[in-house]
Design a protein that fits this description.
- β20 and β21 form a beta hairpin.
- The protein has a four-stranded antiparallel β-sheet. A three-stranded mixed β-sheet has the order 2-1-6, with helices on one face.
- The radius of gyration is 46 Å and the shape is elongated.
- By secondary structure, it is an alpha+beta fold.
Length: about 525
């Protein structure tokens, strides 16, 4: 009994402390809880703050460091971004919750200890930063060109008739998935809030080509040349420039070649001059005029090599440096010559000019039988002869003639691929077909005169659309006796024809009147002569 009496004071004290503690916690629960004093999250003093206030304090801190710079590197390349670009944030919810319950959770002894510790020294929680995964992915995706280092393919050069192999170099490509994780790990685990350098995770990309594969390039697969010796200086320069830009091109198996991409842009800065080009049925002066002879010559070398033609267009009007259907036009991105290397070895394109001749040769590995020969034959299916368009020119006197546009004969043509084996034709297949527009000769004719009669005669002659009639009229007006006699004879013939047509019209009118009269008198229909009204 005495033993229980001695324990009674301690029991009463414990119950009292527990009751008081419970009462205080109940009061705090009724009011909004605040973080105890001398509590820090990082360097941020959150003493006495509610959860919302502490969250706002952390957000404010993040705003102060959002412009902090990060350098993301890959080998020799790098980009500079800000913390905001990476979607910087703070994982503060858990630490704020822990700070709120400091000295308020656990058993009586642990709560008492937490409070005593705060009296001795401040409590400091570490800040855990985070970065937004989707923003990092978008950032890396938008900067691939600035971060990746393309592999340099092994190359070829032809010097003094022999090939030299040029070594390539490995490339570097960003591994987006692993780089995103690397950035997030660094910011969460290592970053101290100051400018930093982060090395991205990269993969090595191997260059195309090996000495073994490039050593196979030694055979002529196809060659072709055309003549441009009669070209004006500007056009000749453009042909030479186009050959220079294509020369040395190397295509690995499966790769596609675009002539337009190789020779563009067609401007003075790229070495081109003004020369004639086809546009809307006429010849106009443009930079790069003559480049189509480059694509055409290459086209014929390519088809002799039996490479795959992916895109080819004929000219709108016929050209003179190859036969119909053997041409390949270039017109911006609308018309292009594209072909692919469908062989198992690289191919090398050699292009150059010499003595007014344009040459293209395709080198590769010859796998076709030596007794098999490929050739191409042009066939003209139809031909449309051009006419003449006469344009009155009141700024020049009678007797003035000027050709504004030369005529072009229209053609429909096709190209046959002919394969012979041991000199005997094995196959003949249609390779392509082409249509070329016929365009009239456009002739300006001077009509200026003070003589109304002469002006009328010129207008009538031009209206016939016949160049010979116009020239005869001009000659007659200029006093040529023979021309005057011819003009008078033509006028007499025209008058006679007009009289005959008038007589026929009169006869037809009389016949119609007779038919009407007969019908009215009930005499029945009369049959008209078969030749009346014939044209």
């Amino acid at each position: 009994m005495k033993k229980y009496i001695r324990l009674l004071p301690a029991l009463i004290l414990a119950l009292t402390v527990g009751f008081v503690s419970h009462s205080l916690m109940k009061v705090e629960a009724e009011e909004e809880m605040t973080i105890p004093y001398t509590v820090y999250i990082g360097d941020i003093d959150v003493s006495g703050m509610t959860a919302k206030e502490a969250e706002e304090a952390l957000d404010a801190y993040v705003r102060t460091i959002r412009n902090t710079s990060f350098t993301l590197t890959t080998g020799d390349k790098s980009i500079h971004v800000s913390a905001e670009d990476l979607g910087l944030g703070v994982e503060g919810a858990d630490v704020i919750e822990e700070a709120l319950h400091l000295g308020r959770s656990g058993n009586l002894i642990s709560r008492y200890k937490d409070k005593k510790d705060l009296e001795k020294e401040p409590k400091r929680y570490d800040i855990t930063f985070s970065a937004d995964e989707s923003r990092i992915q978008s950032l890396l995706g938008a900067n691939m060109e600035n971060l990746n280092q393309e592999a340099v393919n092994c190359g070829l050069e032809r010097v003094n008739g022999a090939f030299n192999i040029i070594d390539g170099a490995n490339g570097i490509e960003v591994n987006t998935t692993e780089s995103v994780q690397a950035i997030q790990d660094y910011i969460r685990q290592e970053w101290d809030g100051t400018s930093a350098v982060i090395s991205l995770v990269t993969d090595v990309t191997e260059p195309q080509g090996t000495k073994e594969s490039l050593s196979k390039v030694k055979d002529v697969l196809g060659a072709f040349h055309t003549d441009f010796s009669s070209s004006a200086a500007g056009r000749a320069k453009n042909v030479q420039r186009g050959a220079e830009l294509i020369n040395g091109s190397l295509l690995y198996p499966g790769e596609q070649f675009s002539v337009y991409e190789a020779v563009a842009p067609m401007d003075a800065e790229n070495g081109y001059e003004l020369a004639g080009s086809y546009e809307n049925g006429t010849t106009v002066q443009t930079y790069g005029g003559g480049i189509c002879q480059v694509s055409t010559t290459l086209y014929n070398a390519v088809i002799l090599s039996e490479l795959q033609i992916d895109e080819r267009y004929n000219h709108s009007m016929i050209v003179t440096y190859v036969k119909p259907s053997m041409d390949a036009a270039i017109a911006g991105t609308v018309k292009d010559l594209k072909f692919s290397n469908n062989t198992d070895a690289p191919i090398y394109i050699e292009g150059y000019t010499s003595g007014g001749q344009l040459y293209f040769t395709i080198y590769g590995e010859e796998t076709r039988p030596s007794n098999r020969v490929v050739s191409y034959e042009s066939e003209t299916i139809s031909q449309t002869n051009p006419g003449v368009s006469l344009q009155a020119d009141g700024s020049h006197g009678i007797g003035y003639f000027a050709t504004l546009s030369t005529p072009h004969t229209g053609y429909t043509a096709r190209l046959w691929k002919v394969v012979t084996v041991d000199g005997k034709e094995e196959s003949r297949t249609e390779f392509n077909s082409s249509q070329y527009r016929a365009t009239n000769k456009v002739l300006a004719v001077g009509t200026a005169t003070d003589n109304p009669e002469a002006a009328a005669q010129m207008a009538a002659a031009i209206a016939t659309g016949n160049e010979g009639t116009v020239r005869s009229t001009v000659a007659a007006l200029q006093g040529d006796p023979a021309a005057q006699a011819a003009q008078q004879a033509a006028a007499d013939a025209a008058a006679a024809q007009a009289a005959a047509e008038a007589a026929a019209a009169q006869a037809a009118a009389e016949q119609a009147a007779a038919e009407q009269a007969a019908a009215e008198q009930g005499l029945g229909e009369l049959q008209a002569p078969e030749d009346v009204g014939d044209e």
